[in-house]
Amino acid sequence: MIELPRYGFGAAPIAGLYRAVSPEQARATVEAAWDSGVRLFDTAPHYGLGLSERRLGAALAGRSGYVLSTKVGRLLVPSARGGRDDGGGFDVPADHERVWDFSAAGVRRSLEESLTRLGLPAVDLALIHDPDDHLDRALDETYPALAELRAQGVIKAVGVGMNQWRAPLRFVRESGIDVVMLAGRYTLLDQSGLPLLRECAERGVRVLAAGVFNSGLLATSTPGGTYDYAPAPAEVLARAGRIAEICRAHGVALPQAAMAFPLRHPAVASVVLGARSPAEVRANAALWSREVPADLWDELAAEGLITKD
Fold it and tell me: Is there a contact between 74 and 96 (Cβ–Cβ < 8 Å)?
C-alpha cells in the first residue's frame, strides 16, 4: 500500500495559473516545499499545458523518497492557433490544446507523455482527472487500464480527482481505486463531501483533500477573495467571517484551521496545497506545524459552522 505524507504540494500554480510564473520562481517554490518537509507532489498535463510536469520534474530530478502523482484524461495535442491559454486558465503560450481521452490507449499514451515531460522514470499515483462527463467510459476503460498498470508494477496506486463528491462515490463503489482527490468539498465552509468520506473510510480508500481554502476565501486570517473561483456570496462571506472570529478567539489563524480541519476525518490521509512562491510555501508550513486546540472544533460545531461528526 502506498504511503501518503500528511501534506502535499499542488503544482498547478507554478505553471502560471491565472498569471505567469518565472522558471526561477517555480523551481524555488518546489525547493521551498522540499525544505519544508513536503514529500508528496501532485501535477497534471492540464496544468499549464504540460509546463507543470516539466517544471516539477526538473526540480525533483536527483531526489528520492517522495510520492509523485499525475493525471490522465486529457491528452495534449500540438496547436498552431497561437495566443495564450485563456480557456485553460493558465498564462502560458497556447502551443497545445487539450483533448479528452479516457480510452485505454489514451491512458497509456498520457502516462508515457507525462513521464517524458517529467523526465522521471515513474510516477507513484495516477488519478483519473475530471471525468464528470465521461463517467461510464472512465469506469469501463480508464480504470481497468490503470488497474492493469498497477498490477504490472508500473504505478503503485490508482485514483480519481474531482471537484464534486457524487461521481467519485461511484468509483469507490464500482471500482478498486486506492485514492480519491477531493477538491473543495470537505472544508471549513463546505462539508458536502461527507457521504463520500464515510464510504472511503469504510472501504479503506484514502482521500487527498485539495482546495481547502475554497479558492482563496480561507487563505488569509480575514476572509476575502473568491469562493470556488467566483465572487463569494454574502452569506458565505458572513459564515467565513464568523469562523475567523472564533479562530482568533482561540489563537488560531483561519488558514491554519482550514488546513487542519480535513485531517480530522479518518479517511483523509493528506492535504494538498498549491503554492506559487517560496513565501506561500513557508507561510503554510509555519501554520501547519502549530497545534489547533480541540475546543475550537467544539465551538465551531456548537454554532453549526461545521458538522458534529
Answer: no
The CA distances from residue 256 to 116, 231, 243, in Å, are 37, 22, 12
269 lies in some domain? yes
- Element spanning 206, H or E: strand 206-210
Q: CA–CA separation, 109 vs 150, rounded Å?
A: 16
19: domain CATH number is 3.20.20.100
Residue 193 phi, psi (nearest 5): -80, 5
Residues 36, 64 contacting (CB under 8 angstroms) = no
- The CA R_g of the chain, rounded to the nearest whole Å, is 19
Residue 47 is among the residues annotated as catalytic for this protein: yes
**What are the phi and psi torsion angles at 129 (to 5°)?**
-100, 115
Q: How far is CA 63 from CA 112, 240, 274, in A?
A: 21, 39, 20
What is the count of structural domains for the chain? Answer: 1
Pick out the chain residues at pLDDT < 50.
Answer: none
Which of 223, 247, 219, 221 is closest to 305 using CA atoms? 247
Question: What are residue 38's phi and psi, to 5 degrees?
Answer: -70, 130
Residue 111 domain flag: yes
Containing domain of residue 184, as a range? Answer: 7-211+255-302
Using alpha carbons, list the distances in angstroms from residue 262 to 64, 193, 256, 270.
27, 11, 11, 8
Q: In sequence order, which residues have a C-beta less than 8 Å from that of residue 173 and are 6 or more positions away?
A: 199
Q: Is residue 223 part of a domain?
A: no
Residue whose grid cell is 461510464? 136
Tell me whether residue 309 is in a domain.
no
Q: Which of 7, 47, 186, 227 is catalytic?
A: 47
